[in-house]
Design a protein that fits this description.
alpha+beta
Length: 619
């Protein structure tokens, strides 16, 4: 009796198969959970640094509302990436946060992609193949960067792309067609990869039904892409979209790109000869120990994605962490697993080559894997900090259903709005504008703050008469259209009027005040709870770029801070206003002589006749 008919052997094979299946599902679940927990932790701590998550969450919410205009980039959904795979998620946004729905779906897709990859490897090496697939999928450096950062339909497509490759290998025509359709529903530009897969299916399975299926899949995918590129995109595309970001130097349409390539091939060659592009493919293959080169037919399917990345002008497309590489991952992993199985079956393989391959994978992940096991893991991006608290407080004061402009990290939390845009410039004329103060935190206490590119724009908003400051934190300022200045929030910097100061054409001031400039005098300086409180009286509106420099006797006037926490523009002061400005007083004691001076953006006093330095005793 053969071993195959031995009941004991059959039981052992069945037990091994069940163990392999459990291992595969456990690994897929672990990857999905890690991606989900990290991406949601980043979202909840307000550390998303691009607008991709907000962009697709707004599209998802808009589809549920019957609103097909995407305001962040300003385009109809038919002119953006065609992501019909979002439609099954629409009912969920009536119950759950749209951003959380997208991040959860993406994490599930990333974990589920391991299942067809594991089946592919199991057919070649059994349980060891499953282990190899799980390790390669989990530790390839690109995956955790992308899945734990933002949402992209190309990442959502990882599962159907892996499913398509497994069906191609196993010759399952129905599964291949369904998987190709599902991948195409994620993004229209995946049509090129699907067309390559269809041609490969026709080549590997040459019987007439398989040949027709492969060719029909390739033709349908290319026709779909052509309909988008030649009909929908020219009609519905935004003024500035991904086409301009990636290929704007060569043209604004697919036809422009083709004409450029035909007429100026040397320019294309010079572009591809740049060092970062020459090293791109070796960098992509190195974590896999170049094993995909042993099975280049799978790289044929990945070639459109890799070629687009090489041709793109966008600065991050050739980075290993870029989401533009992600759609090629299933092909790269399948090619590596196939090459590994082939080399494993040969007796001429060099010794210790498997250990070397694992070393390449683990070392690449350790250096650039983006997971908690990697050196480049940004742990601070997954924890709540002061900025997270400031962001949550700022969101709570924003009225519902109002149009707004806000920084990228806040936009995913605000997508359920009729109109929202990225932070100015340009000014979109919205009801609410939220401006970030990261530059103020970065240059706190330094004169360089006055000359940053962000500060002049911020001062312009503070001095506007059509917007008032609704709320301020150390990280954000929230402006509201039509709010009178000074707003109720800014009133905290004003002191009650005094009979000693008479208002009128000629401002009568008491004696004993310290003159700081032609627009501002100092009444008293007190040290309270480690902070210096300056009691000021305005003589007239001051320059908008006014700041304060101060120090002690014997010290340089090195400390530079904005008046009124930078939340009230000196240009909006009026004669007779009594104000209080509080500043850090580290190292000061009561009785110390305080030296201080006002300065403007270029470091000079407000007016030529103003005192260079004034001094008084701290009370």
């Amino acid at each position: 009796m053969s071993a195959l008919s031995d009941p004991k052997s059959r039981q052992e094979d069945c037990a091994t198969s069940k163990a392999s299946t459990r291992l595969l599902y456990a690994a897929a679940l672990a990857i999905a959970l890690q991606c989900g927990l990290l991406s949601i932790a980043r979202y909840l701590s307000f550390h998303n640094r691009t607008f991709d998550l907000a962009f697709y969450a707004r599209i998802l919410w808009g589809l549920g509302e019957g609103n097909f205009w995407e305001p962040i980039v300003g385009g109809h959904v038919l002119g953006l990436h065609l992501s019909f795979a979002l439609l099954p998620l629409v009912p969920l946004v009536r119950i759950f946060d749209p951003a959380l729905v997208l991040l959860s779906a993406q994490s599930i897709a990333v974990g589920a992609a391991l299942l067809p990859l594991g089946r592919f490897a199991q057919r070649r090496a059994g349980l060891q193949g499953i282990c190899a697939a799980a390790l390669t999928w989990a530790f390839y450096p690109n995956l955790m960067h992308v899945a734990a950062y933002e949402f992209h339909p190309g990442t959502l497509a990882l599962c159907p792309l892996a499913w398509m490759l497994d069906a191609l290998d196993a010759r399952r025509p129905r599964a291949f067609a369904l998987a190709a359709f599902a991948a195409l529903a994620c993004r229209e530009d995946l049509a090129l990869m699907i067309a390559m897969a269809g041609l490969l299916y026709a080549y590997r399975h040459r019987e007439l039904p398989s040949l027709l299926l492969g060719l029909a899949s390739a033709f349908a995918a290319l026709a779909y892409l052509a309909a988008f590129a030649l009909l929908l995109h020219p009609r519905f595309a935004p003024a500035q979209g991904s086409m301009q970001a990636h290929f704007g130097a060569w043209g604004n349409s697919v036809l422009d790109l083709l004409r450029f390539a035909l007429h100026q091939p040397l320019a294309i060659a010079a572009h591809l000869a740049a060092p970062q592009r020459l090293l791109y493919l070796p960098k992509v293959l190195l974590p896999l120990a170049f094993l995909p080169l042993l099975r280049p037919r799978w790289l044929w399917v990945a070639s459109p994605a890799l070629a687009i990345n090489l041709l793109s002008h966008f600065p991050t497309t050739t980075k290993l962490y870029s989401h533009y590489l992600s759609p090629a991952l299933p092909c790269l992993i399948v090619a590596a697993l196939d090459g590994w199985a082939d080399l494993r079956s040969r007796k001429v393989a060099p010794p210790h080559w498997q250990a070397l391959a694992l070393a390449c994978l683990f070392l690449a992940h350790f250096v650039a894997g983006g997971s908690p096991l990697a050196l480049d893991f940004p742990a601070e991006d997954y924890r709540r900090d002061q900025r997270s608290s400031d962001a949550a407080r700022s969101l709570r004061v924003i009225p519902p259903r109002r149009s707004l402009q806000a920084p990228d990290e806040l936009l995913p939390h605000l997508v359920q709005r009729p109109r929202l845009h990225r932070v100015p410039p340009p000014d979109r004329g919205t009801d609410i504008v939220v401006l970030p103060l990261a530059h103020r935190l970065r240059f706190a206490g330094r004169e360089d703050l006055l000359r940053t590119t962000e500060e002049p724009e911020l001062r312009r908003w503070l001095s506007r008469s059509d917007y008032g400051l609704r709320f301020a934190t150390p990280s954000y300022l929230v402006f509201e259209r039509g709010l009178k200045t000074p707003s109720p929030f800014q009133r905290r910097y004003y002191r009650p009027p005094s009979g000693r100061v008479a208002r009128g054409a000629e401002l009568a001031l008491p004696r004993g005040l310290t003159r700081l400039s032609a627009c501002l005098t100092l009444e008293a300086a007190r040290l309270r709870a480690g902070r210096i409180q300056l009691d000021l009286i305005a003589l007239k509106p001051c320059p908008a770029d006014l700041a304060l420099r101060f120090g002690r006797r014997g010290d340089a006037l090195h400390q530079v801070e904005l008046l009124f926490d930078g939340a009230l523009s000196p240009a909006q002061l009026r004669a007779g206003d009594r104000l209080r400005s509080s500043h850090a007083g580290r190292g000061f004691r009561v009785g110390d002589e305080l030296f201080l001076a006002l300065l403007r953006e270029k470091g000079a006093p407000p007016d030529a006749g103003d005192p260079r330095v004034s001094s008084l005793r701290l009370q």
